[in-house]
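Hi L., both proteins are below.
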Amino acid sequence: MKRPTVLLASLSLLVGLSAPAPAVAAASAQPDKITVIGDSILTAVQWNPQPLAILEHGLPTIDLQIAVCRSLIGLGCPFEGQRPPNLVDLVQSLGDEIGSTVVVEVGYNDREDGFAAAVDDSVRALLAAGVQRILWVNYHDWVPLYAQLNTDLAQAVAKYPQVTIVDWRDDSLNRYSWFQSDGVHLVFQGAVELATLINQALIDALAPPLVAHAPAVTVTQVGSKYTAQLGVSGGIGPFRWRVMGQRLGRGLHLLSNGVLTGTPTRAGRMRIHLQVSDSSGALAVLQLVLTIRPRAATL
């Protein structure tokens, strides 16, 4: 069955002049809430049940603040007789109701010559509102203008560790069938793909930090088979373990899945430095002291 196409309003790239962001009072964002601030691109997700379900799957409360013609600062283009509040004004109006995690998919409607400053104003407004992490969706590289927006965006947020780029540009590269004829707005499959990308970015961002744990048993004996599973909490699987620096004692081996096994041949206390990595590239280090007792005397 042919999937439906989502018809969206066209974008206006020429918007009101850039203006400095107004001061935003410090606030306390909602810790278990995600706010998604978007323009007409994300209406393809909001207005279709399947992409919307994909976006929300496995996540805490999501508040969708999506409006056609939204801009970062200044005046957005008119749609159905109204202009939506820009991102900075919206953040102010939300106050304490904004989530501590915010997804931003806005920027096509801002002037190119003031875009970097608009991004900076937006990030500062979000942080002043108590937002702890910002996931910013970059732009489909359909025309040179959008390529420049991506460059300006990356440079503008580089100084903010709270901001992560969600790379829609690379994910959608050469995927022309995901887009309407303007190369910006989405058909149904594009909405599914963008929802999937944002959902995974949120799951990655909200994952607890990676922590390595020692096995329950750290004592063995020369000549006795030893097997122990190293532990992991947090992070995003799959996980991969390795030995750092020195080799393990003769007879012992570490498998990449964190199983420490073998038959030791020499008694003593062995100090082992281990490292585990997860699928996002996060690392955790574990210092393990393994006690190997002498072989039991035989009578």
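That was the first. Here is the second:
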Amino acid sequence: MSDDRLPSAGAVFAALPPPQADGAVLRASIRSMRASDGVLAGVLDDDPTGSQAMHDVQVVLALSQRACEAALGGPSGACFVLTNSRSMESGAAAGVTARAARLLIAAASRRGERIQLVSRSDSTLRGHVMPEIAALQSVRSEVAGAGFDAVLLIPAFLEAGRLTAADIHWARTSAGLVPAGATEFARDPAFAYTSSDLKDFLAEKSGGQIAPAEVASISIADIRTGGPDRVRELLAGLRNGRWAVVNATEYSDLETVACGALLAERAGQRFAFRTGPSFVRALTGTEPAEPLRGERLWPDGRRAGHGLIVVGSHVGQTSRQLAVLRERADVTGIELSVPVIVGGGQDAAAMAAQRVTGALRRSHVVLYTSRAVAAAASAADSLKIARTVSAAVARTVRLARPARPAWILAKGGITAHDVAVHGLGIRRAEVAGQLLPGLISVFRPVDASPEAIGMPYVVFAGNVGDDQTLAQVAGILDGSH
């Protein structure tokens, strides 16, 4: 269905049955089934923002089986492996996805447990959806002799207002709920799309190899009136890697689906999951947590000095947030010129690092890339430019690292990954929680360069928050908010 024929949000949401009342019972059931069945969860995250709904879970940034085994040993029985595949072309994205999946399967096998594989990507539908799922199917066939029975598409990110109802993916904006295909994110130069109905979206992204009628659906009515047993029944009919759209507007919807999937897996089925951030919390039965403040944010006391904010995301939402932040008198702005970086005529990173180091002695610093989007001839060229710019940002942070900022906030998924890995040498970190409800994770580096140990590293997706949120988060970190 073309987006100009979609029903209105008002009509869709008014027709939904009421949600389940008690998510605590569902979460307890999920944890009990996972523990008794020896089930772990391995989340292949295409940028570092997928943990936004989680806490007390580890993320692995340097791919190794030993790191995966260590990360899976936490109380949640889950870990995130950051592939940064959204910054890559499709072939490389498939390759790193396959490598990470093999490491997770091997790590779980060493622990004598089974692992569910979750391909976590953008809640506004940007990413290598088909190549990455094909890679997981290939690894599953290689290891088990057969692929997954079904792939569940669950892009909801409830905390950020990304909801799925009537098979349409919706995004909350200042104008209210609009179909995802009508947002600025659908015009992404590397991952553009037009369809908001997820059945049509899969057909679009598969180049017509998947017909909308071939995609199954688990409706909100199925979930809320039939519960986990109805979900299990629907899943039982799926075979041969068939795609299924999962609708959800509440955590109890996602938790019901997680219960149903575990029940179906008890009967021998196996699923891959392509999700936004919220389903990971549901799949693991993780309890919600209050935003980090006070001693939970600073367990060893607030660090002295100023903070460094790094802004690479170029979406309009981020640019508006950056403009508000720069109005603060105690923030020094330092721009990295994208044309200079791409042109390669001078070491922009080294020059910027000198300025950052000096400015951190007297104020907070926001290091940001120039806001105009560099023109590219193709999606591949656009990704190449993004990687080049992100590498320069990470090099700037690495050179400024001896200044020991009190905290670092990275805005934008690719930026956050490269600053963490190449700027701060983070190989493994603990997700302490979030600064706002279900949004903006705080990493505590466990294995990293010495300057990064004990320093909060804040991961802030480019596509979340209103115009004030970046300044608000900086205020939380420096104690002024």
